[in-house]
Amino acid sequence: MTSHTTGPSRSQVGRDYLWNTAASVMLSLATVIQSVLVTRAAGLWAGGMFALAIAVGVQFQTLGMYEVRTYQATDLAYRFSFGTYLATRLTTVSAMVVGIIGYAFVSGRTTDDVLIIIMVACFKAFDAFEDVFMCEFQRRGRLDVGGRAVFFRALTTTAVFAVALVSTSDLLVSAAVTLVASVVATAALLLPPARGRFPVRPQWGWRPVAQVLGTCLPLFMALFLSMFLANAPRFAIDHYLDPTVQGYFQILFMPAFAINLISQVVFRPLLTTMATRWTQGDRRGFAALVWRGLAATAAAFALVGLVCLVVGLPLLGAVYGKDVSGYLGELMVVVTGGAVNAAGVVLYYALATMRLQRLVFAGYVAASAAVTGLCVLLVPRYGMLGAAASYGLAMAVLCTVFVTGLVRGLRRAPHPDVKTGLHDVVAERL
């Protein structure tokens, strides 16, 4: 199969943005809506348990996705077929589920709590599975088709969860019903449009599957550590503090999701275009796209930060039905950390496209070591403020490493246009 050498049309980019935005918003809102419903219907303790289960799911979701998406979306030469990518994904998602079950059983909780952690965390297994299809649609220039399927799947399962929880007020029952609905919705909404565009049978050749796993291993390890950076404060709260504190932290963390959502809505559809510019030697165009992502992050931080400063606490209190007054400092620290994290995601995509996997991994190792030490030092002493500060400081360490690596990579790139890289684009904008 021939590679794509030209970018998508303007109209197709518009459709890609539309449905990728819809899917991203829906996926983000799904967790928010579910969290709000659980907290309001069952209290802070249940909200904290739900937040912990989601954190576990997101942590092991990195194993399920194995960060193949970044490589697959930029595999414009079609080194590997979709069948190989699908077989790889089925393997990693199976490992993800095993990891979730293992964590739940070693957590030392009651039977009901173990089941809640397993079922809620496995919500993310469906996100991991459909991602390989979403990526293939993107690689073939039809991100809009994948985005539409993901949007309606997430909408359907969120609605089922909401109805079940309101009807039963039982988190365990609601989670079980939602898992069944997820299977049905995935089969009905995702597979039909995929079958019309590419073969959907997995190809179980061990050698190509092993090659994909080996190629993406550094990116997976980096993403695993990336999720650990975001989840380490939650794990520390679970270890050192009361579950109700977990519920409060979940409430305060929600605005950080908004920053990540806004920046990724702008940047993610441009991933294939960014890869095309890099492979074609358009270093200036590549750097401009990275700058666009960072600018979107800064704009999102300014908007969300202002809202949080002025009306953040009353708004969150009204949404969740809980009193969060007195936590303005914690809120602003979390929001700042979320903005730095969003910038790190943009830089991560850029470095992955440049195939600087080792540098990415080194950055996450450094940041993970930092967040571990900070959580041990700050959470027992300062509670939620310590957790928020640990998160933000660790993200700052990560971005420092990434920016340094990106600038050096652009300067050393074997192309005469390298001197008009990111640093020059930034200088022009300043």
Write a structural description.
The chain is mostly helical. The chain has 2 domains: about 1-205, no CATH class; about 230-430, no CATH class. Helix content is about 85%, strand content about 0%. It has 17 helices and no strands. The protein has helices at about 10-40, 45-65, 70-75, 80-105, 110-120, 125-140, 145-170, 170-190, 190-195, 205-240, 245-265, 270-280, 285-320, 330-355, 355-380, 385-410, 420-430. α15 runs antiparallel to α16 (about 385-410). The longest helix has about 40 residues, at about 285-320. The chain is globular and about 55 Å long.
What topology does this entry show?
Blueprint: H1 10-42, H2 44-65, H3 68-73, H4 82-106, H5 111-121, H6 123-139, H7 143-168, H8 171-189, H9 191-195, H10 206-240, H11 243-267, H12 271-279, H13 283-320, H14 328-353, H15 357-382, H16 384-412, H17 422-429
Helix pairs in contact: 1-2, 1-7, 1-11, 2-4, 2-5, 2-6, 2-10, 2-11, 4-5, 4-6, 4-10, 5-8, 6-7, 7-8, 10-15, 10-16, 11-13, 11-14, 12-13, 13-14, 13-17, 14-16, 15-16
Brief overview, please?
This protein is an all-alpha fold and 430 residues long. It is built from 17 helices and no strands.
Taking the sheet with the most strands, its summary is: none
Helix content: over 70%
The total strand number stands at 0
- Overall pLDDT level: 83
Radius of gyration: 21 Å
Gross morphology is globular
Count of helical regions: 17
How many structural domains can be distinguished in the coordinates? 2
Beginning-to-end CA distance, first to last residue: 43 Å
SSE series: HHHHHHHHHHHHHHHHH
Q: In terms of per-residue confidence, which ranges show pLDDT below 50 for 5 or more consecutive residues?
A: 1-5, 416-430
Structural class: mainly alpha
What fraction strand?
A: under 5%
